Structure formats: structure tokens, C-alpha cells
Structure to design on (494 residues):
């Protein structure tokens, strides 16, 4: 029942660890059944009869020393309880020294390399840009293979990894190594090489265990449904400035990346009506000139390829110079006219090619990762005061929501509470039914908090983080302590 809270959790972490409760429950119930049936029969059949003058098995130096310590502790029980209470207080005071972590890295012999070219980069240029990285990796002795995905992330072959959304300026390289031990040395060599030789934003990622977040730190700054993108961009820049000032942050960026310069024909509505041409006709014509418009599909085996109609390459390269004479033909017309007849000229403008939303509100997300050896809570605590000041200075209707590991941890921990209540009720009911005594229940429950002494001091001594996996260990230890206390109480009563 100590693990029931995980089984009842509705969060992603509960879904990932739910089978733990099932396996433990089946194993312990079968163990109890065997211990009550098969084990006594085997003992009767296999163990020899005790000799009448056999020596006391507990009359050994170890048990004599244990008896002296136990007797001393019981005679001076108030001193013993005071000492243990002091240790418990010292352990709780040392808890801030324990590093916090949601889920650890997986022990997969794979590494991810993210590559972001400037926004608006064509997919062909992105493909060319990642080739030097592929060549460097394939020459490395620790690497056994490389798979590159250009334009979006790979298929979701590993559940905790969220694929990147389609983006011609993005590529991801999956690196296979000989063993898990090769991952960190390879990353230590590759990261400085990328910074020196690749002029765009790159990022190395290890695979995580459980519900892993793509970005540990994500501050979503959102505004009204039609929020001013300039205000969001300015807030995102201020958020990145805060993170750059922190010595614990790296790989700092926002989802709202570089604006893209575009050619904008100024559609003249009055002349467009005389020519029976709409904005859609104008858009189709300009798209045909550069990107091409799909007019059909070509099947080759099980694969379908789009058939694009677009101008020849020399005309595409000189798209700006040909816009005035670009021919437009309406759906109800048999003749075409040049674009200049339905526009007031062609101008240049900056635009955001992708408008991100969060809960239907326009948003910009500031993203970062902690340095190697650091955890998200340490980075969060270092920058939270500055972000709170930033939020206080935002216009009315704008707010900051902390996503990433902050939200995942809070959601996972909160989802354990509903399952802890029935688990505690069942455990307490079993103890009361066993002993028909509230006093024994209180003795057992008051012993459980002292487990924090070993937990906290152990985590501090080994520099191990307190995460969701450690919480599973705490729940397991709680169940073991209650079980041991039941055995001890039975022995004391006898």
C-alpha cells in the first residue's frame, strides 16, 4: 500500500511508474502465500530437530553487544529520544543542501544533437549545414552510426522524447555510440567543437528516464489572444538577458526566433475588383513563382510525392525583380495581367513566420538548460526573483507561466496526494486490526519520520538528488519500516 499513491497518480510520472505498484503487490502477496504454506512444510521436512543442550544462538559477541546497547538505550530512553530528535532536526535543517531533480538521464548509448539555422532558412541549406557535424561524428572512434532528420524531429521511437515541430530551419542528429560510458566523453569533445566551427545554435541532449522535458526551464510569457508581437518579443529578450546573466544557464533561446524579411505586394482592392482578382489569386501567383503550388500527387510504390507547379530556377532566383511583371490569372478569366496592375508597389517588411500560442493566447517561451552538474531547481532559484520583477512590469493582461520541469514536478507530486490518503487509511486500519490498539499505531507512526535522518544525510553524503525516483525509495522505505515495526512489536509483546 505504500506504493499505491503511484498507482493512483494521473500524471505522466504515475503512468510511467504505475506498474511498480502492480509488480510489488503481486510479488509480496505471493511471498506471503508461500511463507504461510510452503516454507513451514519445507522447514518441518528439512530442518533437523534441535538438540536439548544446544548452545544459545544469540550468545555471541555481536548479539551480546547489541543487547548491551539496547538495554542502555531503553534505560536512558529520554536521552535516546532527545538524541534522535536532535539528529532529525539536523537532518531537516540539512535538506536545503540536497539537490533536486525530476527524473535522471537514461542509460542509453545515444545522444541527440539539435541544430537551429536562422529562421526562414530553406530546408536545402539546413541539410547542407549539418553535413560537417555528420562528417566529424562519423570519424570519431566512439560513434557507431548517425541518423539525421532535417525539417522536423524523428519519429517518436522513445516515449519520453517529444519530436520537434516541422521547421525547415531545424535538424536533429541521433548519434549511436559503443556504450553508455562513451556519451559524456563524446559530449565533452563535441560541444566545444560545435561552438568553434558551427555558426548557428546547436544543443546536445541526453535521453531521459520517465516523462522527460525537452527544456528544463521554460518561462511562457503570454498575452491576450491578439497580443502585440513586439511586446512579446521585447519580453522574451528581457527574459533571455536574465538567463545570460546567470552563471548556471546555457543554451538560451526563445521560440519566437529571428524575424524574416519578406516581399509584400501592396494589393489595391479597387483595381483588383476591376480585374476580378482577389488577394487569394495574388497569393497563389507569388507562391507559384517561388515555393510552387501543388497540382497533383505522384505515386511510386507506397510513397506519394507532391507535383509542384512553379517558375524555373533563374526566375525564382530573381523573384524580387520579376514581381512587377508576374502574370496573374483569375479563376473566371482566360487572360492574365501583370501583378503591377493590381498592386500599389512591392515593399520589404519583417514578419514572424510562426506565431506561438499557449492556452489560445499569443506567447513567447524563454527556454534554457542548466549547466552540467547543476539541476533545474538551482537555476530556477537563481533567476526567479528577476523573472518576478519582469512579470510585475508587463502590461495588463500579460503573465508568466512556468512550464518545463517546474510544472512537471509540481503536477507529479500533487498527483501522489490523492493516492496517499487511502493508502494511509488502509495501512493504519491493518495495524489497528492486528493489535486492537491505538497506542501501538501511534508508536509505529511516530517512528517513521526518523527515516529522514538516513535519507537526507545519505543524499547529502553521496551528492545524490532528490527526485521522483528517490520519492519511490522513500515510499518503499516507509513500507519497510512499518513492516519492521510490526515484527518488532510482535517480538516485544512476546
Amino acid at each position: 500500500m505504500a506504493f499505491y499513491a503511484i498507482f493512483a497518480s494521473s500524471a505522466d510520472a504515475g503512468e510511467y511508474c504505475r506498474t511498480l505498484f502492480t509488480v510489488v503487490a503481486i510479488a509480496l502477496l505471493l511471498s506471503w502465500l508461500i511463507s504461510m504454506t510452503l516454507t513451514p512444510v519445507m522447514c518441518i521436512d528439512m530442518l533437523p530437530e534441535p538438540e536439548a543442550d544446544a548452545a544459545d544462538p544469540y550468545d555471541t559477541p555481536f548479539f551480546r553487544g547489541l543487547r548491551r546497547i539496547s538495554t542502555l538505550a531503553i534505560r536512558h530512553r529520554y536521552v535516546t529520544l532527545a538524541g534522535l530528535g536532535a539528529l532529525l532536526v539536523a537532518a531537516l535543517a540539512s535538506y536545503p543542501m540536497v539537490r533536486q531533480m525530476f527524473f535522471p538521464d537514461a542509460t542509453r548509448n545515444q545522444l541527440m544533437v539539435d541544430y537551429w539555422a536562422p529562421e526562414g532558412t530553406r530546408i536545402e541549406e539546413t541539410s547542407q549545414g549539418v553535413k560537417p557535424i555528420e562528417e566529424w561524428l562519423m570519424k570519431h572512434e566512439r560513434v557507431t552510426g548517425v541518423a539525421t532528420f532535417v525539417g522536423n524531429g524523428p519519429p517518436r521511437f522513445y516515449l519520453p522524447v517529444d519530436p520537434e515541430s516541422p521547421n525547415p530551419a531545424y535538424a536533429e542528429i541521433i548519434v549511436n555510440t559503443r556504450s553508455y560510458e562513451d556519451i559524456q566523453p563524446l559530449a565533452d569533445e563535441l560541444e566545444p567543437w560545435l561552438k568553434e566551427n558551427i555558426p548557428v545554435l546547436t544543443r546536445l541532449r541526453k535521453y531521459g528516464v520517465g516523462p522527460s522535458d525537452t527544456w528544463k526551464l521554460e518561462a511562457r510569457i503570454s498575452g491576450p489572444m491578439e497580443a502585440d508581437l513586439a511586446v512579446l518579443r521585447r519580453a522574451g529578450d528581457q527574459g533571455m538577458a536574465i538567463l545570460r546573466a546567470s552563471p548556471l544557464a546555457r543554451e538560451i533561446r526563445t521560440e519566437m526566433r529571428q524575424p524574416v524579411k519578406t516581399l509584400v505586394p501592396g494589393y489595391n482592392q479597387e483595381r483588383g475588383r476591376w480585374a476580378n482578382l482577389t488577394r487569394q489569386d495574388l497569393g497563389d501567383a507569388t507562391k507559384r513563382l517561388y515555393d510552387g503550388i501543388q497540382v497533383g500527387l505522384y505515386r511510386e510504390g507506397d510513397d506519394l510525392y507532391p507535383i509542384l507547379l512553379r517558375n524555373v530556377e533563374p526566375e525564382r532566383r530573381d523573384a524580387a525583380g520579376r514581381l512587377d511583371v508576374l502574370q496573374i490569372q483569375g479563376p473566371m478569366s482566360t487572360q492574365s495581367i501583370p501583378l503591377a496592375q493590381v498592386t500599389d508597389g512591392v515593399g520589404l517588411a519583417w514578419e514572424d513566420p510562426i506565431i506561438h500560442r499557449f492556452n489560445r493566447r499569443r506567447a513567447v517561451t524563454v527556454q534554457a538548460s542548466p549547466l552540467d552538474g547543476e539541476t533545474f531547481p538551482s537555476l530556477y532559484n537563481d533567476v526567479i526573483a528577476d523573472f518576478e520583477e519582469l512579470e510585475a512590469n508587463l502590461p495588463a493582461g500579460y503573465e508568466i507561466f512556468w512550464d518545463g520541469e517546474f510544472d512537471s514536478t509540481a503536477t507529479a507530486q500533487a498527483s501522489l496526494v490523492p493516492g496517499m490518503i487511502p493508502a494511509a487509511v488502509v495501512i493504519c486500519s491493518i495495524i489497528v486490526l492486528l493489535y486492537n490498539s491505538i497506542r501501538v499505531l501511534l508508536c509505529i507512526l511516530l517512528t517513521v519520520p526518523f527515516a529522514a535522518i538516513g535519507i537526507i544525510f545519505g543524499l547529502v553524503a553521496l551528492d545524490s538528488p532528490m527526485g521522483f525516483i528517490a520519492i519511490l525509495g522513500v515510499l518503499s522505505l516507509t513500507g519497510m519500516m512499518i513492516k519492521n515495526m510490526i515484527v518488532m512489536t510482535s517480538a516485544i509483546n512476546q
